[in-house]
């Protein structure tokens, strides 16, 4: 770029115009993000109940806010956190594509007809004044107002630059007939979008060149198609760090842009004739190429919606094959499933992802380690088999797991990630005391699991030894421990299936009370076993420690289950309200 500005000084004013326009778009996005954040999130949750409503939300919000990037960020954040479905997220994205056409209409109807300096400078002055305020809503409004001012100021600089150097910078001399010209200028559109990283900026650039007569109308249509295809590269780059569903959402946009682009390139002559026909119906002047280009841009995205929306289920099925979920068995949790940078945009998406990550760790690793640590089959615990049969079936089975290795290679890694994302979110947002408390509760659920695994390290070793011991007394005590844990795990599983069941909640409370009061050291039986030499001193030491550890495991398992299965809805609602 430095070389281009040095070699072709006439480009500098146009380049400055593009830079100012892009800066305006950035300020618009930042401003709207602060100004409409809460209402936008609540609206998305309400409007994502069906494909039609999700599409309408994407279209209207993008048309009003002039930022498909903002809508995409919200959609990807909510999708990554599981707050909306993949189908709804894709529909929002397709609606946003149609909504982006409002930028071309804004420029073609107002940008070239109004005295820009008459209202841009006041917009910039008041915009910066509001942006300096402490109130978030006022600051957001100020950024949005100043962004709109810079947007139109960029158009003014671009227009002036093209008019001043009309003879030195003229693409009409490169105009070509037929499909060769179509594909050549489509490639130019793709390259411009890759450079500017903004399809909207390229559309404005094309409109300005059309207005100043430095680009043929037909070639401009090809550049518009290329600009839409070029957006694919930006989407792919943005999806690299996203979750699996975030990648699928980007994949759906790639399908939308590429399929629509190819169809429109092949049918560009017929579409141009159809635009002329529409222009006649709406009394648009034949030489008003800016309006006709806006019509074509709208038609392009409308065709894309008609080509893709009816096949949404097929597209999702294809994306799930091409971008499969990473299959993880009970002990394959080596990196977060729900935590990624995209969820950090909003408090409720962060809390939802943290809850989901902690729940996934709890169900896939912690639950399994506790069950197998007491020689219980986790699948049997989750089945409808009576507990007596579960305990009896597992008498001869020995689950050989390395709890120590599991802690360091799986649990500790995920716990560290949960703490990292919770801390980043707390530092990113100005959280109220109730919301800080909600984040603390989520971290508690994860911390409990670390404590549980640590307590299970010694227990598992002794269970393997004493369940096969010839000493019937020590074996009986460890069988009692197994039964207590089996009852707790079964009730926790039932709580997961029906968190609102009063009977299950009552059973959980009883188990918690028993774990709180169950002290083998104070029981007469423990004293009897030692006094009557029924068990050795080393057996007594192991039994006392393991009994205490198992009680702690049960208390922590219940506490985490109550938070993850009962309190989670309240925490999410609290995050949304605040």
From TrEMBL:
Keywords: Cell membrane, Membrane, Transmembrane, Transmembrane helix. It is a multi-pass membrane protein. One of its GO terms (molecular function) is sodium:phosphate symporter activity. GO terms for biological process: sodium-dependent phosphate transport. GO terms for cellular component: plasma membrane. It holds the Pfam family Na_Pi_cotrans. InterPro entries: Na/Pi_transpt. The chain crosses the membrane at residues 14-36, 57-84, 90-107, 114-132, 138-158, 179-208, 220-242, 254-275, 295-312. Its main location: membrane. It is found in: Cell membrane. PANTHER family: SODIUM-DEPENDENT PHOSPHATE TRANSPORT PROTEIN 2B, SOLUTE CARRIER FAMILY 34 SODIUM PHOSPHATE , MEMBER 2-RELATED. NCBIfam families: Na_Pi_symport. This is Sodium:phosphate symporter. The lineage of its organism: Bacteria, Pseudomonadati, Bacteroidota, Flavobacteriia, Flavobacteriales.
